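Risk register update: the risk of archive-format incompatibility is retired. Evidence:
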Amino acid sequence: MNDNQTTAAPVEGHALVPASGDGQVLPASLAAGPDTFEDPGLPPHIHRAADIDPAAAKRAERQVATMFGISMLGALIFVVAYFAIRDEATFFLPGVGKTSTQNVVLGLSLGVSILFIGLGAVHWAKTLMSDEEVVEERHAQASSPEARAGAVTVVSDGVESTGLTRRPVLKYSLGGALGLFALPLGLQIAGSLGPVTVGELKETLWDPENNGGKPIRLMRDPEMTPIKLADVTNGSVFHVMPETLQHSIDERKHVLEGKAKAAVILIRLDPNDIKVQKARDWGVDGVVAYSKICTHVGCAVGLYEQQTHHLLCPCHQSTFDLTEDCKVIFGPAKRALPQLKITVDDEGYLVAPEGFAEAVGPSFWERKR
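Archived output:
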């Protein structure tokens, strides 16, 4: 035997057969190939209690209907809470702090509603629907008319196996749960985007009534220090908040919402580069202020290209041209960024004499411009 030949000791219970090429040997049972494996078949079917005991089936039916009933109750609580609980109502939630009562109740009721639709459907499938194992052999992709007719029969039999035709209480309770669950969603859409909120979307902390009717100073964000016109050099960029933000923080009144709507970007250009007269008139010596909230989905527009005078939204690449009153020149946004009119007070500080002339942020149904 030369150095390249190998031998193998017999494995107990397996005869050795020579393999081709490399001189190795394999047990005969492994060399025979996969055809020697037997089809294990399906395990014995284990019947559930509801399959053999009518009382257990009736009990499972009542349990499913109860879950759907709880879902309906959750949806009704949502609707009542939406109208009955005031927006200003709060309570102290351990570990979280001061929390909106309406938000908590709406979230919990909606969560309960959808949770028990899911639990009811799962319990229904596991206890009452047919669970017989079926083996289907693969066949050609093109089915014959007989096969298609058979498929319709299978679907019909499947509907029958759900018990909907024999258990009307399940059909009606499921229909009620799904029907009532749609109410909170429709109410949230119709109520939150209806005419009542249009004025609220137009109101920001830049409105003079938040400062006793007086113009509001522009403040650096986050330092909250006032900005003089002389501080803004050509090409410089300031992220700005209104001075009234501090009042909102002191009163703890919708601080995050107010800050999000009031975010402004302040930039100085050569006045000759500004092509729109209105944009030039609403600024001071080439210093212009625009809302930072993208009119697509509300991301912060904070990237400025000094050479092209373009503002870029980092979320979906909407691009706004500062020289053209921030009109959209690229991307999914459909509306220019709203401009904030600014001027200079007696001390040389930049101030906003009035709020935005239009609602900031993304589009909504009632928006006119």
